[in-house]
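Memo to structure team: turn this sequence into structure tokens by end of day. - J.P.
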Amino acid sequence: MATTIRIKDSTSKELENLKKKLGLKSLNDVVEFLIKEHRTKRLEKMFGVDNISSFTEEDRIGDRG
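Reply from structure team:
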């Protein structure tokens, strides 16, 4: 089911620019992308994100003196 929404011309142009920049096929794809980005950022804010790199041999507890 499709729904029509009313947006400003400037917003429409921004969405078109994002569509081209992101290589998406439709404005609906752009809106879905933006919703997913928003959800991801909210989850990161709620739960935090650990950017831990992989462990090395030096990180092992047994190697600490």
